[in-house]
Amino acid sequence: MKDNICVAIITKPHGLKGEVKVKVLLNKPNDIKKLGSLCIEKEQEYRKIESVKAVSDVFAIKLENINTCEQAAVIKNRKLFAKREDVDKLKSKDDIFIDDIIGLEAVTTDGESLGTISTVENFGASDVVFIKSSKYKNLCFANIGGIILSVDENKVLLNSPKLKEVMVFDESVRG
């Protein structure tokens, strides 16, 4: 498991004093306010969060030692990471970290191995989980709840009946 978790992505500078707008990746976006510090992608040090405020459907964050619009522009499109131990305190027992399921085998409750989870994307409504499979081409499913039953260090167990309702793949190559 990774020591750092990506919790937000910087979208653009906000104002003249070094604030940045961010897209928060946490299940409860307001939880970003509970974190004390963040690490900017490509940097080693954590920076104290000086302020967080809601701006429309995103948040504006002021990080320590980012004091100008020019400094904020340099970090545009970078990811923001929090320490796993800090994010663990915010999650409920059913929450999972995307980073923890990438590369794991996806297995249904019927015992079928679907392949390896390759990526997870969010297009607005829910997370979409993509599985690299030798049996199905372009296999993915919307993680609408109740599908991922458990995660261990080797596999992700998927609820077969619910998965069949939302699973999408290219029919032309089903093996």
Short description:
The protein has helices at 69-74, 84-88, 98-101, 160-166; strands at 4-14, 19-24, 37-40, 46-55, 58-63, 79-83, 105-108, 113-122, 127-132, 137-143, 148-151, 155-158, 167-170.
List keywords for this structure.
single chain; 175 residues; mainly beta; Elongation Factor Tu (Ef-tu), domain 3; SH3 type barrels; 2 domains; 7-stranded mixed sheet; 13 strands
Question: How would you describe this structure to a colleague?
Answer:
- By secondary structure, this protein is mainly β.
- The protein has two domains: 4-88, Elongation Factor Tu (Ef-tu), domain 3 (Beta Barrel), CATH 2.40.30.60; 98-173, Roll (SH3 type barrels).
- It contains four helices and 13 strands.
- A seven-stranded mixed beta sheet has the order 11-12-7-8-9-10-13.
- A hairpin with a 4-residue loop joins β8 and β9.
- The mean pLDDT is 91.
Structural class: mainly beta
Question: What is the count of helical runs?
Answer: 4
Low-confidence stretches: none
Mean pLDDT: 91
Shape: elongated
Determine the CATH topology of the largest domain: Elongation Factor Tu (Ef-tu), domain 3
Q: What is the strand tally?
A: 13
Fraction in helix:
10-25%
CATH class of the largest domain, named: Mainly Beta
Integer tally of domains: 2
So, CATH architecture of the largest domain? Beta Barrel
Task: State the separation between the terminal residues, measured CA to CA.
Answer: 33 Å
Specify the CATH homologous superfamily of the largest domain.
RimM
Strands of the largest sheet, in order across it?
11-12-7-8-9-10-13
- What is the helix/strand order? EEEEEHEHHEEEEEEHE
Approximate strand percentage: over 45%
Radius of gyration: 19 Å
Largest sheet: 7 strands, mixed
